[in-house]
Design a protein that fits this description.
The protein is about 55% helix and about 15% strand. The chain has helices spanning about 5-50, 90-110, 135-160, 195-205, 215-220, 265-290, 300-315, 320-330, 345-355, 365-375, 385-395, 405-415, 425-435, 440-460; strands at about 65-80, 115-120, 120-125, 165-180, 190, 210-215, 225-235, 240-250. Strands 1, 2, 3, 4, 5, 6, 7 and 8 form an eight-stranded mixed β-sheet that branches. The two termini are about 45 Å apart.
Length: about 475
């Protein structure tokens, strides 16, 4: 590695650290804001219930209002009713429309999209409702592509008999929505807000057979799909909103030339985007489930190792999928502490095996992730490049400038469990451990080895002469 490359890696490390700190601050602010909004909504709902409870029939379910900061609303309009009277078998045509809507329901379920309602010949659904996720714009576009393909397949069959009935248009927009829920056993959702209105306008401006998206949706999906600029749509209080037409999946991300089926590279890019959702869930599990005496193996440590695994992976030139595997393994590598202190690597791997299929990881990817988690067992004995990166990320703090305060938290953690004696014994143990430790990757050596040697000398000075 040249000196310029070393400097670049160090600059990336500093930027990643700054970004991590800013992200944590932003997360705390967002959580505080969400808590205030939820409290406000709760108070509003309680007030509404108090006003209506005396006039409400017994057993009737009450409405609840939910806020979603980022949802993608889809309107799919199937035009063809005007030709029903021209057909002698109009009942068959209605049955065919019902079948189309049924298939739309199946497609929506496949892409974790919530059906909202059908209004005549218009199908309304939304991604990111009721489960919040960052991938919902991609999911909704993929669903629209599948829906268009199904309608086109039906049309092709009809064209063989020189009969063309259905035309379909799609409109979608991404933004905040307010959802009102109704029902107990089967919950239904009613969406309100500018996002719904703009999605309707996108559909109204769409040409037959096209998928029309707003610029907000476009910015979130353009890395995945071929989109062509379509024009501007004036929207009340919003000015002119740019529109784009989705043609299909990008050629380099598609299995076929028509851009219908995503390939392995598409799925990897999707999982990397989805990682923030997975991370939020796992960190929430850790915050709620880790014992209070884990002063070192806490949420901060997991975030540190995840960031460092990505940094070292970049420095070592690994591929996108390998970055994904490293970050996911780092996220779960200490999650087993929610079960027990000993053998926590095994329990972390078991948690990964249970959760990751729901996030579309393949069996092969899950197996590699579990092997990476198990590679963090002490003493480290990595067997391949990714395991070497993982081990270096886990013990990155040994060569950091904040080594002393971080190591003190580990001492405090072990002391709370009666696993270590006095501080002097701890310092002697640290000198021995760090002196025998080695970083396995060139990137970690360049970043941490010099400072690690300095830490050894600092600890030796803390040990009194005998």
């Amino acid at each position: 590695m040249s000196s310029e490359e070393k400097d670049l890696v160090k600059r990336i490390a500093r930027l990643m650290q700054e970004n991590k700190e800013l992200s944590m601050q932003n997360k705390k602010l967002l959580e505080a804001n969400d808590a205030l909004e939820e409290e406000n909504d709760t108070l509003k709902n309680q007030l509404k219930e108090l006003k209506t409870i005396q006039h409400e029939p017994e057993g009737k379910s009450r409405e609840k209002t939910l806020r979603f900061k980022m949802a993608t609303v889809l309107f799919a309009e199937i035009e063809g009713f005007s030709k029903l009277y021209e057909e002698s078998n109009s009942h068959d045509i209605i049955d065919e429309l019902d079948q189309i809507f049924f298939e739309f329901d199946q497609i929506s379920k496949r892409f974790n999209i919530q059906k909202i309602k059908t209004i005549g010949d218009t199908y309304m659904s939304a991604g990111g409702v009721p489960v919040k996720n960052i991938t919902n714009p991609i999911d909704v576009v993929m669903a629209a592509l599948k829906m268009r393909y199904r309608v086109n397949a039906i049309q092709e069959k009809r064209l063989q008999n020189n009969k063309k009935i259905w035309e379909i248009t799609f409109g979608m927009h991404t933004g905040p929505v307010t959802a009102t829920t109704m029902g107990k056993k089967k919950v239904s959702y009613n969406l309100k807000g500018d996002t719904v209105n703009i999605a309707t306008r996108m559909k109204a401006a769409c040409e037959a057979g096209e998928i029309n998206i707003s610029v907000m949706t476009y910015e979130m999906v353009r890395e995945y799909f071929v989109c062509e600029y379509f024009g501007k749509m004036p929207v009340k209080y919003k000015g002119d909103v740019d529109m784009y037409s989705v043609k299909g999946i990008r050629p380099e991300l598609s299995k076929d030339q028509k851009g219908r089926e995503p390939n392995h590279f598409f799925n990897t890019r999707y999982l990397l985007r989805q990682f923030s959702d997975l991370q939020e869930i796992v960190l929430d599990i850790l915050e709620k489930g880790l014992p209070d005496y884990l002063y070192y193996h806490n949420v901060k440590h997991t975030i540190d190792v995840t960031s460092q695994a990505e940094l070292i992976g970049i420095g070592e030139g690994v591929k996108d999928e390998e970055i994904l595997l490293l970050k996911t393994a780092a996220l779960f590598h200490d999650a087993g502490h929610t079960v027990e202190y000993e053998n926590h690597e095994y329990h972390g791997a078991q948690m990964a095996r249970k959760m990751l299929p729901d996030f579309h990881y393949t069996e092969e990817q899950i197996e590699q992730i579990c092997n990476l988690i198990m590679a963090t067992q002490l003493p480290p004995e990595p067997k391949n490049k990714l395991q070497r990166i993982m081990c270096d990320a886990d013990l990155d703090y040994l060569g950091r400038s904040d080594f002393i305060p971080v190591s003190n938290t580990l001492y405090k953690e072990l002391k709370a469990q009666d696993k270590i004696g006095d501080i002097n014994s701890w310092n002697k143990l640290q000198v021995k451990f760090i002196s025998l430790h080695q970083y396995f990757t060139e990137t970690a050596n360049n970043l941490r080895e010099v400072n690690k040697q300095k830490q050894i000398e600092r600890i030796k000075q803390l040990i009194p002469d005998e």
